[in-house]
Structure formats: C-alpha cells, structure tokens
Predict the structure.
Amino acid sequence: MMDFSELMQARQSVRSYTNEPVEEWKIERLIEAVRLAPSASNSQPWKLIIVNDPEKKDRVARATYSTLVSFNRFASQAPLLAVLAIERPKVITQIGATLKDREFPLIDIGIAASQFCLQAAALNLGTCMLGWFDEKAIRDILGIPQKVRIGLVLTVGYSDEPPRKKIRKKKEQMSAFNNYF
Amino acid sequence: MMDFSELMQARQSVRSYTNEPVEEWKIERLIEAVRLAPSASNSQPWKLIIVNDPEKKDRVARATYSTLVSFNRFASQAPLLAVLAIERPKVITQIGATLKDREFPLIDIGIAASQFCLQAAALNLGTCMLGWFDEKAIRDILGIPQKVRIGLVLTVGYSDEPPRKKIRKKKEQMSAFNNYF
C-alpha cells in the first residue's frame, strides 16, 4: 500500500495502455471516488458517464482527437473512458457564484477528477484527464442535453508506460508565506 | 496508514479546530501536494500563499466572513490559512480555452486543492475549502495584484470535530454507463 505522497507520485498522465480491460469492481471504486468528492455547498454538480460500450467508446475517443494538432489519439487505446458532465449546483451556490463572480462547478469538477485519478492510481490503473474534445459530438453520442457542459474526459486502463519523473515548478516559484510574490 | 478509500472518507470539511499549531514539516508536505498536482498542459496555474502570520491570518479569516449570512466565522479559529491564487496558464492552454470556451485554470485549482486537503487528511490535519470571501480585501492583505483572481481559501488545523458520515447522492443519481440520464 502506498502512502499519499507515493500515490501522488505514482499518478501520472498515461497515454499508452495495454489491452487489458478494467475490472468491474475497480470501475465501482472509481465511481465511488467521484461520489465521495467534496464540492461547494455539497452540491455535487456532476454526472459521471462510464463509457465501456466498444462502439460508443470508440466514437467518444475520436471526439477527443484534435484536427489542429495531433493529440489525444491515444484515447482510442484506453479500454475505458469516463465523461464528467457539469450539473447545475444548488441555488445557494448559484446565488453565491453570481454575487462573487465565480464558477464553483468547475473547481468541483477538478476535485472530483482528482479523486478519480488518485483512486485509479491506488488501484494500479493509469489515467489521463482530457480537457480538449468536441463537446457537441460527445453530447450527441451519449445523449447529453445541449445545455449541459462537459468538464473533462478521462481515459482509464493499465499503463504501458514506465513511471516518469514529474516536471514541476520549484517550490519557490509556486509558494510563499504571508505575501504574494 | 490509510488506504485511499479510507483517506477520502477521513477528509471532511472541518469547521472547528484545536489551538494546536501546524508543524512546519507538515506545511512543507502540503505545499508539495500542490506542487505535484496535475494541470492542463502542465501549466500549474497557481500560487499558494501560506498565511501563518497571526495578524495577517486574522485579517484574511475576517475577509471570509459573510455579512449576508453568518458563515465562515470558524476561519479565525484555524491556526493556518492557505490562499490559492489563479495564475495565467500557458499560451497553448489559453488558446485551447478560447477555442473551446472553457476555463481550465479553475479545474486545475480544484485538483490542486484536492491534493492539498487529502494530503492534510493523511497527516491527520483537518481542512475546509472556502469559496466565499472578499476577494479584494484578501488581495490587499497579501499584496495580490488586481488582475489575479483568488480560487480558494483553505483553513488548516487539528480537528475538534468527530468524523461524520458523508451525505452524498446515491450512485444511481450521479453515475451511469454509456448514456446520460
């Protein structure tokens, strides 16, 4: 069992997968990780669509490809995709958001995706969060209403990549005490 | 050591703290949890300001109070506050965001805050994410430029609350396979 520091290190964006399928019990644990995620006013403003039907999965994967630059093509390789749709938060959250000009559901989607990907890593699964996709195409494939935005598409599967060293800003570039810098 | 499921259960929004200070080595681990967080195009669009100067901490805490409804007053009790400021992402991310009409940095702030709070729970620390605050006042206190938005204020300390059972939507209300519902 990894401690949380090791788990954060182990989670990395995986862009190459084996063809081994994801076990059903692990899918249940991933759903549970999103279900338990905290959110503004406990609104839980998300729906998680697990895409494992081969034909739909293939179409959703293709909807994450870019025609501008060649990326996300690895999405077709992942045995499982998960789509995080953004639901309306509670009325109190909506009022607060308007008063303070801030979009809490996007922060909440990030929290939920984080718990999903860390839980996956704890189960020895690789993931990648995709923020670039053809939203309208994915709505059509999964029957998502026009007014519902899609937050992220997550690829899931067994990694075919070695662990990498993380490239990050230095502590001094991203943190400080008591004063902005 | 907790496994990740136990850790997610242990993390809860803590609104009552003992007066025990947070050890310096634990603060370093919390900074590291944000530093390692994944983000769109690895932009790391955040600065984490740890507020432990007593006078500044008191002023930031007061800036999270609401005059409309009485909440966040517990923030003054927390021995430590952390402010997540939102930085501009990479140019490629900004172009993508414009093309796709989406604000990646807010998702990224959620991911970073999630790693912060889970790491805190792994260190037996309680946290609460506050999305409601007087942004201008906090900017003034910490010297944050006008154009920089503040994503979240996090309270940190030793919990004075018992663990609660989480109130969440049922699995059937927040997840499905292959079709939106």
Notes: The mean pLDDT of chain A is 94.
